[in-house]
Design brief:
The complex is a heterotrimer of chains A (293), B (275) and C (429). Chain A is an all-alpha fold and 293 residues long. Chain A contains 13 helices and no strands. Helix content of chain A is 75%, strand content 0%. The longest helix of chain B has 34 residues. The chains are: A mainly alpha (293), B mainly alpha (275), C alpha/beta (429).
Amino acid sequence: MTRRSTMMSVYGWLLFAPAAIFLIAFTYYPTLATLAKSFYSQGTALRPAEFVGLENFEYMLDDDVFWQVAWNNLIYAIGTIPVSIALAILMALWVNGKLPLKSLARMAYFTPTILPMIAVANIWLFFYTPDIGLIDQISRLFGFPSHNWLGDPSTVLGCIIVITIWKEAGFFMIFYLAALQSVSPELEEAAKLEGASRWYFFRRVLFHILMPTTLFVLINAVINSFKLVDQLFILTKGGPDNASSLLLYYIYEVAFSFLDQAYASTLTVVLLVVLALIAVGQFVFLDKRVHYQ
Amino acid sequence: MIRSGRSKSVFARLEHAAAWLLAILWLSPLIYAFWSAFHPAEYAIRFELFAPLTLENFRIAWDQAPFARYFVNTFMLVTSILVAQFVLCTLAAYAFARFDFYGKSVAFVFVLMQLMIMPEVLIVENYSTMAKLNLVDTITGVGLPYMASAFGIFLLRQTFKTIPKELEDAARVEGCSLIQILLKVYVPLARPTYVAYGLVSVSYHWNNFLWPLVITNSVDTRPLTVGLAIFGAPESGVEWSIITAGTLLAVAPLLVAFLLFQRQFVQSFMHAGIK
Amino acid sequence: MLKILKHSAKRLALAAALSLGLTSAATAVELTMYYPVAVGGALTKIVDGLVADFEKENPDINVNAIYAGNYNDARIKALAALKSGEPAQLSVMFSIDIYELIEQGAIVAFDDVVKTADEKAWLDSFYPALMENGRTQGKTWGIPFQRSTIVMYYNKDAFRAAGLDPENPPATWDELVAAGKKLTKKNGDNVDQWGAMIPSTGYPYWMFGALAMQNGQTLMNGDGNETYFDAPATVEALEFWKSLGSDHGIMPAGTIEWGTLRQNFLEGKTAIMWHSTGNLTTVKKNASFDFGVAMLPAQKRRGTPTGGGNFYIFKDSTDEEKAAALKLIKFLTQPGRTGEWSMKTGYLGTRADAYATPALKAYVKEFPPAAVARDQLEFATAELSTYQTGRVRKLLDDAIQSALTGSKSPAEALGAAQKQADRLLKRYR
């Protein structure tokens, strides 16, 4: 190595160092510490913590609530990711096309993104309240009976999913809009001249153009399906009977309500492993499609 | 297969109607918030067209929770995070974009991992760290985990890479040091990226809830989101007219900013995404 | 020249005043206190007012009263503050947090803080039913502040419309079912007015404690290490609760939301609601109809758990701070003040001599519902409280919700909850 490149190396590290310190302190160290803590029992002032090996993990596998929560998260992901992406594409197509007053529509679609979830949760609580709530008031006009949306284990998760889709779709729409606007209008004109229907055009042309965006949006949607739990604090607190609880919410509950940091660390390890697998998968998959220069 | 003119326009009209129905659906929570906040409590669930308007709910909401203090806290929080992010991410992005250092690609992978392992996932351990650093219940404590943003580093790196090397060479010829090159060449040319990233960061942290909930205990540090959650906590019995008034107070700045700078907002998010 | 002199004189005076102020502040004791709010009304204003009065009478004590959210939040915040090195000296927290707080080494027993014989006698001057949750291991750890029982609110106008006597609310489980059936008004598939609503989110274990007690069964022992979730009488109580919705049709199926229940009652969606007496003043202010308040109905006996928050003093404070905290607590629980608190909120006056004060006497005379909770104290029992209390409560909450939504039978749900609770509490026996 030449002296110049050694200097470059040193400078490089010096420039990276401040950010690196933060990353280590608040991402890497906590990840390792969480792993370590999951092997100890929860200590209190009167009974201190001790090494228990895999006992916390055994407890977790035995914990019905954990399995319920894991299942819920899976349903939550399956419910929110495809629908919000599909809606986002649809919205982007509409707003990019011939819709009258489309900038107003674009504003309407994007508004949920700038509102904090916790702020709108109370409004959704009103929407979902039986009898006097908005949804029931409207459905009564059509003769449908009232329904305990949030109090019925079979509908509560669906209700939460609806709220998340509402929050996310507009955000994803923006990325698709960016991609669509980079498509030259001549392309669509040419396709139309050749007699291609809009659906054909979409399937054969746009879909592939939007693929990189879709991958980017997909990552965001997956992360959100683990991260977006704010509404639970106001709407259901995970109930009834954990029917709407999600992993991150359960972690919060165990750590800060039950004061069991050891078990919370165990749960966090599971979450980290899942995220790591997704990250690796995405890296491998994306690498084939998109090249980072 | 060419559709006949008439059925095409019917189809188009149906489509427009659907798009508009969706738009109204999407706005309905906000519309309800306005309805409920500006009408007396009896009309929170009754939608009578000529019900009287009132500002009383706002007065009560403002009285019941220290919104002014929450605003200040939130403002300080997002500002401090943004400034720190600009500094840290610029330096790191510069390193990745223009320097060849030992272990660079491994370091970059580690940075990218933070995209997945966000601070929200590590609330338990980060809380312990903050307790050890004596930063529980401080605004600094809320902001620290977010200051080195992988997203920011990534965005800026991509932007810096597109800046032609000739400009850097020209500056070096003039005798600029590395830092001066950074400040005089790269940063100014990356301005759109900074604006885009700034808007994304501010709106993200203005709306962030879980970590601030965990780390703040008192009025002096609580941001708007946590204040709103406590204010509207169901155990207190839900009074929608007051809660929606409080909610509107809390989201007003973002809403107004959004309405005024709609195009820039949208462009920023788009810009952030393309890269 | 004169101007400059005047100017410097002013600045000197200001500096002197500031330093005087600073020195007097330096000798003042600083108290930080967290407190929760779990029922409606602008309670934070009232607390601020009481604290200001205290500071006026005690210029050498500064109190910083911080509203922390609900009971869960208050506990989390207070414990977090302890760990972070900026502790509070006292707090109002759930009466049932007692075991957790002892286990965390957070609180000190009042017996160790009171010094004079007067103060020792003061510990015994509160209603005994309210002291149950605050005493263990032979010591007093919590002093009642905002305490409540569940009461039955009922819509007298609705009673009249249904042909029931508004002065004779249901006094037994059977009477409740019968009245409920008359009060439930159907409209095709929809129900315009339900007979009764017992909330099953928020604090379902609390409501359930009442039903269990009415069936003659307590939910836990006095040492905090044993629960009786699967006792036959407990299972019966849950079966009764469930039957109100599924068999008798007087209550909606599924869970009933705590936060919107008061709204439902005020809107006439339900003719009867079981709720904390702490909601009384808000209901009184907002009801557009004639309403009454009654004790909860009996099965084998009347019963209700007590609820609400106690004062706790934290261990991690100086003796001076502990003494100041004791002073504040005594101030806030004086008969006149607890009476004032009761009138403004609907919470109980925590001591018998509160009800003997002229203000509260007159209030009760003019508004009899204010005395229902106090009269019910005779039949009251401690609220569910054990070691690992958060987890054990959640087990019971989940069991109740799963039974009410029909996912499990009451026996199944409670059996599973008991098994888990045993596992958790074994090591404390």
